[in-house]
Design a protein that fits this description.
With 294 residues, this protein is an all-alpha fold. It has one domain: Orthogonal Bundle (MetI-like fold), CATH 1.10.3720. 73% of the residues lie in helices and 1% in strands. It is built from 13 helices and two strands; from the N terminus they run H-E-E-H-H-H-H-H-H-H-H-H-H-H-H. The protein has a two-stranded antiparallel sheet. Helix 2 crosses helix 13. The radius of gyration is 24 Å and the shape is flat. The two termini are 16 Å apart.
């Protein structure tokens, strides 16, 4: 049973929530309202101020477009695979390098350097390095082994993009896991060691369960970021041969700017927003239910 001291007064709560509500209304409310209007309208760059309401034709066009489902499948695979790889590598590095980082903390700055480079510049750099005709990597592979590999070809572009994304964002996961690993109380580690727990058992039954909330959050953040990827994929391969590397963000971009189908592009973004909101709401409800069950 909660006491009055544990309950925040409703007036104070409303007062503190005012800046957040105003920010959301200005930053998200008006653009979301405009998007909803455009998504059910026939609109072009010439008629942006006077869209013609046409119903759900734009949603039907998106829903029946095979390119939309191809882009959705690419985004889902890319987001899930990169999130798993980044978190696995970041967790391994956080645990393996922990003694070294404790003694030489300046190494953390070096490990964070990939995060300081814009993803578009990372994509441009790897485009030059891996280019089939002028890239140094294919050149030396041909010089040393007499054979080269098309890193940006239709058969291998997806895996090249996964590797590039993983290399850039693994430091982010490493930073989260390093802080979570360092936050584990030393008394628990010492008590498990005194009880004779082997390092593997201590890691599996003590340390990883204590880091589980951070692992879940990191997986969710990296999946969302990978699912909406645009810049480095667009710079490296664009939409690829036959749209093989077109993410949902690239699909919306091309529909908007290249095809001029503003209503269709906005309808796709509304669908993406609705699905993202439903997933996040479901995860939040699941977490709240698990918390209440304890």
């Amino acid at each position: 049973m909660t006491t009055p001291s544990q309950r925040a007064p409703s007036s104070e709560f409303r007062l503190l929530a005012v800046p957040l509500v105003l920010f959301l209304l200005v930053f998200l409310g008006f653009p979301a309202l405009v998007n909803l209007v455009y998504s059910v309208s026939e609109v072009s760059f010439e008629t942006l101020r006077s869209p013609e309401i046409t119903g759900f034709a734009n949603f039907t066009a998106v829903w029946t477009d095979s390119s939309f489902w191809q882009a959705s499948w690419f985004s889902f695979r890319f987001g899930l695979l990169t999130a798993l790889l980044e978190c696995a590598l970041g967790l391994f590095l956080a645990i393996f390098l922990s003694p070294l980082i404790e003694k030489r903390s300046w190494l953390m700055a070096i490990l964070m350097l990939p995060l300081m480079v814009a993803p578009a510049l990372i994509g441009l750099m790897y485009r030059f390095v891996l280019h089939e005709f002028v890239g140094p990597v294919p050149y030396y592979l041909w010089t040393w082994f007499g054979a080269s590999f098309s890193f940006l070809g239709p058969a291998s572009a997806f895996w090249t993009l996964v590797v590039v994304e993983t290399l850039q964002w693994t430091p982010f996961a490493f930073l989260l896991f390093h802080m979570a690993y360092q936050a584990i109380p030393k008394e628990i580690i010492e008590a498990s060691a005194m009880d004779g727990a082997h390092y593997r058992h201590r890691l599996w039954y003590v340390e990883l369960p204590l880091m589980a909330p951070t692992i879940v959050v990191a997986l969710l953040i990296r999946f969302i970021d990978g699912f909406r990827v645009f810049d480095n994929v667009y710079v490296l391969t664009g939409s690829g041969a036959g749209g093989s590397t077109a993410s949902l963000s690239i699909y919306i971009y091309e529909a908007f700017f290249k095809q001029g189908a503003i209503g269709k592009a906005v309808a796709a973004s509304v669908i993406l927003f609705a699905v993202s909101f439903a997933v996040l709401y479901g995860l939040n409800a699941l977490a709240a239910r698990r918390k209440g069950a304890r």
